[in-house]
Amino acid sequence: MRVLVVEDERNLADAIVRGLRKRGMAVDVAYDGDAGHEAAFVTRYDVVVLDRDLPGMHGDQICAELAASGTLTRVLMLTASDSVADRVAGLGLGADDYLPKPFAFDELVARVQALARRATPAAPPVLQVGDVVLDPARRVVTRAGAPVDLTNKEFGVLSELVKARGAVVSSEELLERVWDANTDPFTTIVRVTVRTLRKKLGDPPLIETVVGAGYRTVSP
Questions:
Q1: How many CA atoms lie within 13 A of 200 on its CB side?
Q2: Whole-structure pTM over 0.90, yes or no?
Q3: Cβ of 178: how many Cβ atoms within 10 Å?
Q4: Which residues fall within 8 angstroms of residue 192, CB to CB, at 6 or more apart?
Q5: 59, CA 20 to 30 Å: which among 19, 52, 65, 217?
């Protein structure tokens, strides 16, 4: 899951980023409206957590432009105002959800996760290929009934490959969906992660390399 946080209160923004990353999400951050607008239209995010009152481009304008673009990206709007009129105005601009400050972090996470489910084509609540079962909600993976202990990135890669249902997923796509903007695009981190993932999943092999194209799952 890829998330963009656009918030000018740096301490709050950084706290949100750290918390979401601990939940296994790939998170980028922008501290003003201009940077947030650029990021939102350069990278395909599942969810944008967007403050309304931003320096530079106002959050309302970013929200309206995202809604008008037809993107599948969902917008969770944050604001210090909790008035009904303010909430109605934000939703009228095209926001998918609205959360007043201050907020409970667990509620923010729950809302981001709910919006992310709407940002991508519907997938079964539990994913399976062969004898490997992946439960995204509980972040649990088993093979032949035995638990498989994966890091957040390994879980993210496996999830993207299983959701593709045998279609090839390129390294570039995995890098965009599982890692954040701070990752070097020329890194070998995807190849390394796939290698350790294969090792943890064991035999028979579940992930196949398609030379020059990427990776796909195969049913043993």
A1: 17
A2: no
A3: 25
A4: none
A5: 19
Residue 25 in tokens? 């999400």
Beta partners for residue 100, in sequence order: 79
Band of residue 42 on the pLDDT scale cut at 50, 70, 90: confident
Core vs surface per residue 115-150: b (16+ CB within 10 A) or e: bbbebeeeeeeebebeebbbebeeeebebeeeebeb
CA–CA separation, 103 and 38 (whole Å) = 27
Report helix, strand and coil shares of the chain as percent, to nearest 5: 40, 20, 35
How far is it, in rounded angstroms, from Cα 136 to Cα 139? 5
Cβ contact 76:50 at 8 Å: yes
Which tokens is 144 given? 């032949």
In 3-state terms, what secondary structure has residue 200? helix
Distance CA 166, CA 161 (A): 7
